[in-house]
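B., you asked whether I could sanity-check this one before it goes into the benchmark set. Here's the sequence:
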Amino acid sequence: MNDILSNEEIDTLLDMFRKGTVEDEVRSAAPALEAPADDRCREVDLLKPNRLAREQVRGIERYFESAAKLLSATISDKLRIDARCDCVAVEQQRFSTWLEQLPGPVAMYVVKMEPFKAPVLLSASTSLLYGAVDRILGGSGRVSRVPKDFTQAEYTVADALMGPCLDRLVESLDEVVKLKWSVENRFCNPSMAQVLPSQDVVLSVYFQVSGEFLIGDLRLMIPFQAIEPHLEKFAKDSVTRMEPGAMKDKVAKTLKSVPLDLTVELGSARITLRQLLDLQRGDVIPLDTRFGSPAVVPVMGKPKFLGQVGRIGNRLAVQVADVMDE
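And here's what the prediction gave me:
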């Protein structure tokens, strides 16, 4: 018996609950549902989505962590402050759960992202967005009172920040899917955001923004049906899916271009501190190497080759005579 139900099994059970036939099915199968002695039966939460595998979520997280860095630079540039944006969480939820977790008053953007068939939602804390509007208009950005809704003019100013933020989000997914965005609607009432059935699974991405006097969050909702055709690309990008040695050629190519320090030791000498202090210009220090003896050639400070010192034109050179044992 599988521990995790497949998507088809979950959809079938949910459909049975809606039709009210599940009780009859359970009652008729009651003798077969008695718990075995080894207690292998366990409870299953039918409302908990499990459409994304762990490696897929990890792959998606890396893309949006990269997006957070781009957002940090964009917000700092547009508002002329030192701001930071962190990708706090990436998880799969029911759409109704995502709406319930929106923190207080928010500004909602309904965004069409082609080739996604379903709309994407991007929310921003009204305190964050209103402070950004004030900052863009030349104010300090410090606001003590935030309106419950935004005027059309305020939304137009806010677009000067939200537009570039959408550009960065799209740019971060460029390797997976080429997206083209356009804003279809904007509002501050979450009840108007019923763009999907409540039980639909969505991907929730939570960004937290902080900078001097500004603090708030950005929350991105992508329907599972929109991102499902591209999940294989996210999984392939995951390091956990790579076979052992898959990166060997790439690593070898990278290492071959790493610069190394190579020197030639013509000889060495041992003198006292008194002799060192008494050295004058023109003094000669005898080396412990005889004329014609091979010179040691260290690489990064460790002896690696033996060579013969000579000339190439007007320049000194060394010819490798032997490779020293490790």
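One thing to flag: The first strand starts at residue 84 and ends at 94. Otherwise nothing jumped out at me.
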